[in-house]
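Notes, Module 5: Reading structure tokens.

Key idea: the token line is not a picture. It is a compressed description, and you learn to read it the same way you learned to read a sequence, by spotting repeated patterns. We will look at two proteins. The first is printed below with its tokens.
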Amino acid sequence: MPRVEIAVPFQDNWYFDAMTEGIAARLQEVDPTCTVSILAERPGAPGRAVVADRFDEVLADEDCVGAIAIGFEFKGPQVPRLTAHGKPVVVIGGWCDGLPSVTVDDERVAREATQHLLDLGHTTITHLAGYALSPDDFTMRTDRVRGYSEAMREAGLDEHSHVVPCEFTHEAAYRAAKELLSDPVRPTAVFAVADELAFAVLEAAGDLGLEVPRDLSVVGVDDHRDAASRGLTTFRQDPAVVGGAAVDRLLGRTEADHQVLRCDLVERETTAAPRTPEAPRRSVLDRLLRRRSPAVG
């Protein structure tokens, strides 16, 4: 029975679950006899080397018609090892020399997310970036840091750029956001690298008594299935559509080696013009002046 091997970096993750479901659904449309096998050996990322070894093994199986790697970048000798089997290998999430890919323009998304906040009048915007560098995934996070930084620089606010890295979990993002928002000189807006991290920012803001968007604007990326119910302004991408596009390339139904899908702004209730953009900074200054001023009367 023909099958397609899929590698995902995280288990029990809405985005990757939706993407693998989209892959399976598209395969069923094209070839009802085709099945999928998912490589996710343990919670967390199995690692690029593990994925390359596994693909090398399964591609040698006559039943395997191809493989799809979600969020893994193959480098050096890994690519010719995989292509030597003469079967298609498609990567999702970035560019990979020698292999076809399906992705979104992460740099553009970040630039437009930051520009949305700038257009509203925000000047102190922090980017909650997850880990800016990861050895086992594409440059999604660094591309989004680049897009954010470019928008800030073009607005003449490069000196106010603030990138906060953290582990890509709700708990880590909550801790980072709470520390960031507890600072007397806090930002008036946060651009989070993904909606899951944006949700943590909203929770931290609420626990600190900040009102969104009156005191803080928040933008995410992905349009998580819970984004609408939380009123989150975000950039929409449909992981099932991404997975389906990868299947079409895998089965030769499309020919583009690098397909870039759109990711559009969905404006909801978590962004607005800043009430007083520099209020936190002035508040600190006022307290210092009061301490130094002599009592009158």
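Here is the second protein, with the sequence above and the tokens below, as before.
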Amino acid sequence: MFARSASRLAQQVTHMGTRSYSEMAFTFASQRKIFYNAESVKQADVPSLSGSFGILPAHVPTLAVLKPGVVTVIENDGGSKKFFVSSGTISVNEDSSVQILAEEACVLEDIDLAAARDLLSKTQAEINSASGEEAKAAAMIAHEAAEELVKAAESG
């Protein structure tokens, strides 16, 4: 058993030497729009259910679930772009490619703060009027997303 594990580890370490440490093929899309399509970027900072984290080239392979919040993409020229995401998935692959697939996403500047605050009020009312655990849980999830949307709009 130990010999097999050591052999696998040796193969991984040998394979890691072939990875590119300076490039990261980054894909970021929602159901409605493709923001990046296998483009090279320096870094992506993402909110996940297990905590926010930054992704750089040669990041350890990872699968994670997006939580509502802001994705920041630092492009090769040093500029950055910020996006609000509602939920989705993050895949960081061994070849340094990264895919972020969001249920909903938009550029931070496109968020209407007044509309976001209105949505927050509506989701609070839905929590208060929910009958049953399932309806209350759904309303609480929508409320969490609305809270993060308001925070994103206020910071953008």
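Summary for the second protein:
- The longest helix spans residues 133-155.
- The helical segments are 2-16, 113-129, 133-155.
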